[in-house]
């Protein structure tokens, strides 16, 4: 009995490891996509702007599950064959990237214009002003929103069961079909999700406190 | 084109600026000598700030010529960032970088643009902060300082670029009355050091005491200009008289 439980927990932990792997890739890429596309939106670059609005709408206004099906089952029709692993991190990155684009666009817009003007008035070129003034202030503003998206990406990694990627939910489901121990297996899986999400949000709060601008009330 | 002894240091010729169909500067002419302190007064919406902002190319000009040290700024051949290094500007709301310490506020642009070594720009920054009376605030963040202190940091930050001319856009308007003096004192010292200055302000005592020339603007034109005492005590236009009657000049 004792060894059975240990064996199940070990299996679940390996599933959790896979969930963390695709989530980490998806979250980092999502933030990267969000910063770059959000910055282009903020700069109002004509044609790119419209393309980005299209991308954001496409991924925010369709179900993640359908996006996963399209990536895994439809792309082979046009010659692109993705493994379950590739489908998993890519789906999370694209879906998260769409949300992060809006998070970072809003953060860039919230940076006070006066500070940007002051930098330009000193002779700092536009792109350098973006790197030294706009970006550092915007990142602080974006932390809370970006964390919410990241946590949702991690939770959504459970959708990858549908392409047969061996993440936590997939493993839990397999154990249940072998052992019929529904309550304890999904119970442990739930606790694992809960634990990771709690760590993520605690890390975000710690990060916010570390980057807090002394005396400034913008970041709480 | 070379700057002869007779040529003005800064020459604004027939400057026109429009926002859409609204013309805010309707042909302004202004010559400034090297080391001259020009104080610009006038009611809100008279175009004072827009005029200042044309000099460092923050404000696009519809028509006219701006010649700084013999160079035509609007020829399209000037590197706007190079021009701005020569033209320092201080704003009403200080606009310090909130995420950087006072020291880094001063050293950021010199290090990036002038490629100055960190040690050198930090030494210059400490020197300038001592001059504006804030030697002990190097490690503070802007929002830990009073408005007057922030504005003095902003002046020091502009001076870090070794500007040839300084623009002051209502720099004391957002300050509590007791903090105005500390900022004006820094500006007086700067004027005495021979800095060429264009100062938009409502501080008539500063205009009288420090200004070499007083310019009164209204409705996008220069109505009157001359020696500050003459303009303030014996205005020759009704519009000027009317404006001054509402001030403590």
TrEMBL record, chain B:
Name of the featured protein: Glutamine ABC transporter ATP-binding protein
Keyword Amino-acid biosynthesis: no
Protein family (similarity comment): Belongs to the ABC transporter superfamily.
Location of region: Disordered: 229-249
GO molecular function, a single term: ATP hydrolysis activity
High-level lineage: Bacteria, Pseudomonadati, Pseudomonadota, Alphaproteobacteria, Hyphomicrobiales
Purpose of the protein: Involved in beta-(1-->2)glucan export. Transmembrane domains (TMD) form a pore in the inner membrane and the ATP-binding domain (NBD) is responsible for energy generation.
Membrane topology of the entry: Peripheral membrane protein
Predominant localisation class: membrane
Keywords: Amino-acid transport, ATP-binding, Cell membrane, Membrane, Nucleotide-binding, Transport
Domain ABC transporter, chain residue ranges per copy: 10-244
One family name in Pfam for this protein: ABC_tran
GO cellular component, one term: plasma membrane
């Amino acid at each position: 009995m004792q060894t059975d439980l240990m064996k199940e927990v070990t299996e679940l932990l390996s599933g959790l490891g896979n969930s963390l792997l695709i989530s980490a890739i998806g979250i980092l890429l999502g933030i990267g996509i969000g910063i770059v596309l959000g910055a282009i939106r903020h700069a109002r670059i004509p044609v790119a702007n419209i393309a980005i609005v299209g991308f954001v709408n496409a991924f925010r206004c369709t179900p993640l599950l359908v996006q996963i099906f399209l990536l895994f089952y439809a792309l082979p029709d046009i010659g692109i064959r993705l493994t379950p692993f590739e489908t998993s991190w890519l789906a999370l990155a694209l879906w998260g990237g769409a949300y992060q684009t809006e998070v970072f666009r809003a953060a860039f817009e919230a940076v006070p214009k006066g500070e940007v003007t002051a930098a330009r008035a000193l002779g700092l070129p536009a792109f350098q002003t973006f790197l030294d003034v706009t970006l550092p202030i915007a990142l602080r503003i974006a932390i809370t929103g970006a964390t919410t998206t990241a946590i949702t990406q991690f939770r959504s990694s459970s959708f990858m069961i549908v392409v047969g990627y061996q993440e936590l939910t997939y493993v839990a489901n397999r154990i249940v079909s072998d052992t019929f121990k529904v309550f304890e297996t999904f119970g442990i899986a739930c606790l694992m999700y809960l634990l990771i999400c709690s760590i993520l949000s605690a890390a975000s709060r710690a990060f916010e406190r570390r980057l807090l601008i002394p005396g400034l009330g913008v970041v709480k | 084109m070379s700057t002869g002894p007779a040529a003005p240091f800064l020459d604004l010729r027939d400057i026109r600026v429009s926002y859409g169909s609204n013309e805010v500067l309707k042909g302004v002419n202004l010559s400034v000598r090297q080391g001259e302190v020009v104080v610009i007064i006038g009611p809100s919406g008279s175009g004072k700030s827009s005029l200042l902002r044309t000099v460092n190319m923050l404000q696009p000009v519809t028509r006219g010529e701006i010649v700084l040290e013999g160079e035509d700024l609007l020829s399209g051949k000037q590197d706007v960032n190079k021009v701005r290094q020569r033209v320092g500007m201080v704003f009403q709301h200080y606009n310090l970088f909130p995420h950087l310490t006072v020291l880094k506020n001063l050293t950021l642009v010199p290090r990036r643009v002038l490629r100055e070594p960190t040690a050198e720009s930090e030494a210059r920054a400490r020197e300038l902060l001592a001059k504006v009376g804030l030697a002990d605030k190097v490690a503070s963040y802007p929002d830990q300082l009073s408005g007057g202190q922030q504005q003095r940091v902003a002046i020091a930050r502009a001076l870090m670029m070794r500007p040839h001319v300084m623009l002051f856009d209502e720099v004391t308007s957002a300050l509590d009355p007791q903090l105005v003096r500390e900022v004006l004192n820094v500006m007086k010292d700067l004027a005495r050091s021979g800095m060429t200055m264009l100062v938009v302000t409502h501080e008539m005592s500063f205009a009288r005491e420090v200004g070499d020339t007083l310019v009164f603007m209204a409705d996008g034109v220069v109505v009157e200009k001359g020696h500050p005492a003459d303009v303030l005590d014996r205005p020759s236009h009704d519009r000027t008289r009317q404006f001054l009657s509402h001030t403590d000049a």
